[in-house]
Design a protein that fits this description.
2 copies of one chain form a homodimer.
Chain A: E1 3-8, E2 36-42, H1 46-58, E3 65-68, E4 82-83, H2 85-93, H3 98-103, E5 105-107, E6 109-115, E7 123-130, E8 141-143, H4 146-160, E9 169-176, E10 186-192, E11 195-206, H5 213-217, E12 222-236, E13 238-240, E14 248-253, E15 256-265, E16 271-282, H6 300-307, H7 311-322, E17 327-329, E18 335-348, E19 352-354, E20 360-364, E21 370-371, H8 379-398, H9 411-436, H10 451-465, E22 507-510, E23 516-518, E24 529-534, H11 545-558, E25 565-571, H12 585-591, E26 595-597, H13 604-608, E27 616-620, E28 626-630, H14 635-645
Parallel strand pairs in A: 2-3, 2-11, 6-14, 11-20, 24-25, 25-26
Antiparallel strand pairs in A: 4-8, 5-8, 6-7, 9-10, 10-11, 12-16, 12-18, 13-17, 14-15, 15-16, 18-21, 19-20, 22-23, 22-26, 24-27, 27-28
Helix pairs in contact in A: 1-4, 1-8, 8-9, 9-10
C-alpha cells in the first residue's frame, strides 16, 4: 500500500522476538557476590535443566543461579525416550511442545500378543487398546531421544541465561556450614578442568543422577533392591514382517517376553524401534549392583550371567520371541544402541535436608531420588516433574513471596514427590514382574499369569504412568478440609475437580473474540496462581451470588503482590445473550481475555463436576495442580488458602 | 536403570538436533565460481525470505544461492500483519507455524456494526460471523508483526545457510547478457557499503517491493490506478467500552467507516488493536503517487489533502465513528505506529522475462508484482505464496529434474500467479470501495449500500482471501483434460478434488500405529510430488482394481528419480479387518507410514468426492495443489502427467 505519512514507536521493533515469560515479582533484594549463588544446581540432565530453565524464567539471573555438569557437551546423555501426556502438557505450558509433538513418535496404541492355541501360529494378537486411557490434552505418549529433550530445554534456557549450563564442572563435596555464612549455608567444592573452587549457595539441588554425589555426601539413603530378571534393550531400524512393529507391543511368547516401543523417524527417513528383550534365567535375589554405595560390586554369580549378555544374545532371544515372524536389523549400522540391565527399584528416604533453623537447603531431584525399570517410560518424566514441583516453591521462597511463619512451603516438595516416587516404584514392581512372567497356566510350580490380570495392571497403572492421575497428598498447598464441597463426583481422573490433582484440559469459547481455546493455555508455567471461577447461571443478576463472588475475588486479587494472581472465569449457559455491560464489571477488569462460555465446545461444568446453578471456585497452583476448592459463597476460604502461601500487600483503598 | 553393558553408534548423537528437510535429488552438476550464483534474490521481505528458505531447503548451497537486501537489519520492515489460513497451512508444512499460532492473535470472528434506527444508539451490531468461512485446517486468521514472520523465516534459513541474507547490499542495475555467459546470462550490479561489484546468475528474483528496481530495469509495467479514498491506520493499546474490540469489525457509522483488527499480545501483557479509519472527503481520481516510475510526484491538490492527515485527525475520525462508545489510547506511548495511505490497485503486466532461448531468467515476486489495499490482510500472504509457487519449479529446473522439451515449467509461474494477482486486485477493488461507502439509503446522488450487499462481497471473497479458494488455471502442471473424471461434486472449496486447487486437510487414522493424523502432514514442503491413492473397497481382493492400480503405481514410482515421488494411500470401509499380509504388498513397500483408513475420523471419500466403490487417484504437486486426477483403471494418465514434468530414469528390472 502506498503510505505517505508514517510514525512508529521505537519499542515496535522488539516485537519480532519470541515472547519472554514475565518474571515473578520479587520482594527481597540480593547483591551479586563472587562465588555465592542463591541456587546451585548439580547436573544438567532432564531434572537439572528443567530446574534451571524454570528458575531462570521466574527471574533468577546468572548472578543468582548456577548449574554445573560434569560432562563437556549436551550430546552424550541418557537413553530415556518416553514423554508422557502430563509431561507434554507441562512442556506445552512452557511453549516447548511443538517439536516433540511433530518430530517425536506419537504412540497411540498398544497391542498385546500372547501364545496362540494354534500351535502353528505360536503367538497371536489378543487385543489392541489405546496406549493412553486417561483423559488428556495429548492422548498418546511420545518417544524421542532424551538428548533432544535436553537440547530443547537448553535452547530455551539460553534465551534467559547467558551462561546456560557450566560444563566440565563436577561436584567434589557438599556440606552445610551455617556458622560461616547463615544466609549462604550450603558449601560446595567444585572442579572445572582441574581447578577447584568453593561455592556457597542458599540452596543446592542435586540433580546428579542415580550415582548422586549430593545424595551420598548428605547421607541420604537409597532404599530398595534389584529384581532377579535381566533384560536387554536395543534401538534399531528393523526389517520384519511382524504386523504391529509400529505399535507399542507386549509380547508374551512361549520363548520369552519382548516389549516393542516404536520410536522417532531419523535423518535417513527410516523409523527406529526399541526392543526390550528378556534374557532367560534368573539371577539370585540380592545379587544386585550396590548403587547406594556407588561401589558397584556385583556378586560373582550375577556378574558371570550378565557378562554373557551380548548384542547377539539379545537378538537371538528377540528372534525367538517373535517367531514365526522374522525380525532383523534392516542393514549394517541399523543398530543404534544396545545395553543390558537388571531391574532395580529404589527410593531415597528423604528428598531434602534442612539447616538448623529448619529451612530446607539441599534437595535432590530425578534419578538421585528414584531408580526403576525403563519399560513404563517414566524416568525422564518423573525427573522433570520433580523439578516442576520444586521450582515455583523455591522461587516464591527466594523472592520473599511466602509469608513468615512456622510453615515451610519447601517441606511440601518431599511430601509430594516422595509419595509419587513410592507409587512409581510400586507400580513398576507390579508391572515389571508381571511382564517378566509368562502368560499361561502354572508350570513347574510357578504361578501362571492370565492375560486379563496383565491387562488389569496395565489399565490401573495408566492413570499413574500417563502422569494424569498423579494425586498429591494433603499439605499446606493442597487443602481438602472443605466442609461444604461444591463439587459432585469422584472420577478425578476424568476431570472432576479435586485438590492435589491437575486441572484437566477442556476446550471453550472466549467471549471477547470467539477464540476456541484450550483452558490449559491460560494456565501457563509463569509461576502465577490462578483463580478459576466457574460462575453460576445467575451471572446476569447484578445482586446474584456470581456477582458477589466476582466482587470479593477482585478484592482478593488486590491483596496479593501485583500480577501474582490471575483470574479465569467460565460461565454456564445463561438465560439470554449478553454484552460486557450486562455482567459484573470485574469480569472485564480482570479477565477480559480469560472469560469463556463453558458449554459451546466441551461440557465444562459436567467434566469438572460443577452444578451450573451453584458454580464453584478453584485456586490452581503455578504447576497446574488444584490447591483448594470453595463454593462461590465462601471466598474467604480461598483467601485463607492463599494467605498461607503468599504474603499479602498493603492495599490503597 | 542400572545398565551394565552398553554400546552406541556414533550417529546416535546427531539425533538431538531438529530434523532437516531432505534436499531434492540433483541430476546436474555445478561448480562454485566467484561472483556467479545459480539464483540471486533481491530483497529479504516475506517474498524474498520465503524464496531463499525454500531453495536452501531444496538443497541449493551458499555457493549457489545469494539473497541481498538493502537494509542493515531484519528489524525495520513493513507493517503487514495478517496471516491467512492457507498461509498457515504452508508454514505448518515447513514446521514453522507453532510460534505464529500460539503467540499471534487468532482472529475467529468478524462483527458488523451499522447505523441503528434507534438514534440514541447511533450504531448497533448487525451480526457476528466466523472470520473464515472456507474449510481449512486453521479456521481463523492470525495477526502478528510482519517482522516476526521474517525473523521466523530467517531463523530457519540459518539452519540451512551459513550466510543467510547478505544485508547492506542494494541492487543498482540488472540486465540480460547472454553473449558474455549464456549459462549465467543475468548480470546484476550490486553495492555493499559503497563497494560495487558485478554478479552473474542463472536466475534472478526481484522480491524488492513496490518500488522494485528489478521491475523498472527489466521494463515491466505496473498497471492500474489509485482510488479516491484516503485512510489512516494506527496500531495501539486501546481503552474503550466498545464491546467488540477483540473481534475484527467492519463499522459503518454515520460519521464514517472504521475497520478493527485485533492484534497480538505484547510484552506488557496488553493487547494491540489496529484501526483502519476512513478520512472523509475524496481525492480526485488519478491523483495518485506515480509508483510505476518511482518518482512519486503527487498532484498538488491530493498532496495538500494528504498532508492534513495526522495522528489527531485519525483519532478524531475514529472517535466519531465509534460514538456513542469511547475509544482512546490506553496511556502515553500506547500508540505503536500510525500512517496514512491512499488505496491503489496495480498489477505488473509480466512476472518474468525470458532470454533469447525462451528460458525465463528474471522473475518478480511479492509487492513488485502487485499493490493493493491492506484491509483484507493479503499482502504478506500473496507475496509468500508467489515464492512458494515459484521455488519448487525453479529447483526442479536447476537440478535437472525437468525433462528436455519445448515446454517450460517456469512459464507456469506467471500463468498461475498473475491470475491470482488479478483476482486479488478485483476483489480488493470491490471490497475497498464498498467498505469506503456508506451503509444506508442513497443520499446526495450516491448509491446506498445495503448490509446484505456488503456481507455478500465479504462472503464471496472469503474463499479467495483465506487463500483456500485459490484455483490455478490450466497449464502443464494443472491438467484438467480428463475424459473420465472419477470425482463427483463441484464444491471445490469444501474439498472436492480438482486440479489447480489445494488438497484440503482431512483427519485420518494410520494403519501402522493408530496415529490420528492430518493428511497435510504427509504433504510437507520438501519438494516432492505425491501420489494420493484412494483405493476402492476391493482392496482385499488380490486381483481387484485397487491391487492392480497399486502395482502399476509401484512401477511409476520406480521410473522417476529416487525419493521424488511419495505415495499416500487411503482406504474406505472394507468388508473385514485385515493385517498387512491381506493387502497388496506395494502398500507396505511404499506407504507403510502413509496408509490410512479414510472413514474413522473424517469422511474422506465424501469430502474429496470419491466413490468408495471405485476409488480415485490424484497427483499432488510439491506445493500441495492437485495436478491431475485419474481413475484407478487409468494409471497411465498419471504417468503422462508426471513425464511432462519430471525426467524419467533408467530402471533396472
Amino acid at each position: 500500500m502506498p503510505v505517505f505519512t508514517e510514525h512508529a514507536a521505537a519499542s515496535r521493533e522488539l516485537r519480532v522476538l519470541p515472547s519472554f515469560a514475565p518474571p515473578l515479582p520479587r520482594l527481597t533484594s540480593t547483591t551479586p557476590q563472587t562465588d555465592k549463588y542463591e541456587v546451585l544446581i548439580v547436573g544438567a540432565g532432564p531434572a537439572g535443566l528443567m530446574m534451571e530453565l524454570l528458575l531462570a524464567r521466574y527471574g533468577l539471573s546468572d548472578d543468582s543461579l548456577l548449574c554445573i555438569d560434569a560432562k563437556s557437551t549436551t550430546l552424550k546423555s541418557g537413553q530415556a525416550d518416553g514423554v508422557q501426556p502430563r509431561t507434554l502438557e507441562t512442556l506445552k505450558s512452557l511453549g516447548l511442545a511443538d517439536e516433540i509433538l511433530c518430530e517425536g513418535c506419537q504412540m497411540w496404541q498398544v497391542a498385546f500378543w500372547n501364545p496362540s492355541e494354534d500351535k502353528e501360529k505360536i503367538i497371536e494378537r489378543t487385543s489392541i487398546i489405546p496406549d493412553v486411557a486417561a483423559p488428556s490434552r495429548y492422548p498418546f505418549e511420545v518417544t524421542i531421544h532424551q538428548g533432544r529433550i535436553e537440547r530443547i530445554l537448553e535452547t530455551d534456557l539460553l534465551r534467559y541465561s547467558k551462561r546456560g549450563v557450566q560444563r566440565n564442572t563436577k561436584l567434589l563435596d557438599v556440606r552445610m556450614d551455617e556458622d560461616g555464612d547463615a544466609e549462604y549455608p550450603v558449601v560446595a567444592e567444585i572442579e572445572t578442568d582441574g581447578q577447584t573452587r568453593t561455592v556457597r549457595s542458599k540452596f543446592l539441588i542435586g540433580a546428579d543422577g542415580a550415582h548422586s554425589v549430593v545424595r551420598r555426601k548428605m547421607g541420604l539413603k537409597l532404599e530398595g533392591e534389584s529384581s532377579d530378571h535381566i533384560w536387554g534393550v536395543v534401538d534399531l531400524v528393523v526389517d520384519t514382517d511382524f504386523p504391529d512393529i509400529r505399535r507399542r507391543c507386549a509380547i508374551h511368547s512361549p520363548a520369552g517376553s519382548v516389549m516393542v516401543i516404536p520410536r522417532e523417524r531419523i535423518a535417513t527417513g527410516e523409523y527406529l524401534t526399541r526392543l526390550y528383550v528378556q534374557v532367560p534365567g534368573d539371577v539370585a535375589h540380592g545379587d544386585d549392583l550396590d548403587l547406594a554405595s556407588g561401589t558397584g560390586t556385583p556378586v560373582v554369580d550375577a556378574r558371570a550371567r550378565r557378562s554373557q549378555v551380548t548384542e547377539k544374545t539379545i537378538f537371538d532371544n528377540a528372534a525367538a520371541a517373535f517367531a514365526p515372524y522374522y525380525i532383523r536389523p534392516k542393514s549394517d549400522g541399523a543398530v543404534d544402541w544396545w545395553a543390558a540391565y537388571q531391574i532395580g527399584q529404589r527410593v531415597t528416604d528423604r528428598f531434602s535436608v534442612k539447616d538448623s533453623r529448619g529451612i530446607n537447603r539441599v534437595f535432590i531431584a530425578g534419578d538421585a531420588c528414584h531408580t526403576h525399570s525403563p519399560k513404563a517410560g517414566q524416568g525422564m518424566n518423573v525427573s522433570m516433574m520433580d523439578s516442576y514441583n520444586l521450582a515455583w516453591k523455591l522461587a516464591y521462597f527466594i523472592n520473599g513471596l511466602t509469608p513468615d511463619g512456622p510453615n515451610d512451603i519447601l517441606d511440601t516438595y518431599h511430601q509430594e514427590r516422595h509419595t509419587i516416587a513410592q507409587q512409581l516404584i510400586e507400580f513398576d514392581k507390579a508391572f515389571s514382574s508381571m511382564f517378566s512372567g509368562k502368560i499361561g497356566p502354572a508350570e513347574d510350580g510357578v504361578d501362571g499369569l492370565t492375560h486379563d490380570e496383565f491387562m488389569e495392571v496395565f489399565r490401573r497403572g495408566n492413570g499413574f504412568t500417563s502422569g494424569c492421575g498423579v494425586e498429591y497428598p494433603e499439605n499446606m498447598t493442597v487443602d481438602r478440609s472443605s466442609t461444604e464441597n461444591p463439587i459432585r463426583g469422584t472420577d478425578f481422573l476424568s476431570g472432576i475437580l479435586y485438590p492435589g490433582r491437575r486441572l484437566l484440559n477442556v476446550r471453550l469459547v472466549r467471549h471477547a473474540d470467539g477464540y476456541r481455546r484450550d483452558i490449559q493455555d491460560d494456565f501457563t508455567s509463569t509461576g502465577r496462581f490462578r483463580i478459576l471461577c466457574l460462575t453460576s447461571s445467575d451471572l446476569l443478576d447484578p445482586t446474584g451470588i456470581s456477582a458477589q463472588a466476582l466482587k470479593a475475588l477482585s478484592q482478593t486479587i488486590a491483596r496479593f503482590p501485583a500480577s501474582l494472581l490471575e483470574q479465569v472465569v467460565v460461565h454456564p449457559r445463561l438465560p439470554r445473550d449478553f454484552m460486557w455491560n450486562d455482567i459484573p464489571r470485574e469480569v472485564k477488569q480482570h479477565s477480559e481475555m480469560s472469560f469463556y462460555s463453558g458449554y459451546e465446545m466441551d461440557d465444562v461444568y459436567g467434566i469438572y463436576g460443577v452444578d451450573p446453578e451453584k458454580g464453584a471456585l478453584a485456586i490452581v497452583r503455578p504447576d497446574g495442580y488444584i490447591g483448594v476448592i470453595a463454593s462461590l459463597a465462601d471466598i474467604s476460604r480461598a483467601d485463607r488458602y492463599l494467605e498461607t502461601l503468599i504474603r499479602t500487600v498493603q492495599v490503597d483503598l
